[in-house]
Amino acid sequence: MNNPWREYFTRSNTAKFHPADEVHCHAFNEAIAPQKNSHLHKLREDLEPLPYLGNQNAPILVLLANPGAGGSGPERNVEFSGKKLELHKKNLLHDQQDTNDYAQKFNSPDDNLLESPYFKQCTRELVNLTSVEAVATRIFFVNYHAYQSKSWFPIPFTFPTQDYTFFLVDQAVKRNALIIMKRNMLGWFTAVPSLSRHRNIGEFKSSRRISLTERNLEESVFQEVVERLRG
Q1: Closest by alpha carbon to 68, among 44, 33, 88, 92?
Q2: Domain ranges across the chain
Q3: pTM for the whole thing?
Q4: Which side of the chain, N or C, has fewer Cβ within a 10 Å radius?
């Protein structure tokens, strides 16, 4: 399947929505506007989309809902420009040239603005047990849809770009990847039918946290994550 994000960086629209998704994103934002706390669920048109992060051929997948725009606290490192935008483009196009292109999202001591505080924090324990390089290249984080908001809200519609995301997850099932999930499980199982037959699925204990820790995963799942990271 063709990667629709190749069209993203030649778009003419000013909003940071993919052109194929834009009209639907705006329609969703308009539809929820009258609702209480709609500002928490509004899809941010000023922030870069993040459908996935990492190596699409990784032996471990973590399935998420959508990227959070700062959560309940102040926004940090959500703007993309310069080197960070370059790394973002490589990620969307699966065009990373070396391990460092993957690893800077998790550890970049020379320029920590390149790091993602969110992903760095949730993988810290695994980095300590293995390495930054292993975590960065052997885990693929996948969002159900690409657009940032303060809080997740289920959208009863499939954005055109999601078909590619679901294709990547289906390919992971076919290579027997370890798939870890908790949030929006009904959505994922519906969108990727092969998941319902997949035997290698682990769940986070908490639906609110995706920390890849021994405390937040069943012991057997955590041990398999470590083993797969060590290759």
Answers
A1: 44
A2: 4-230
A3: 0.95
A4: C
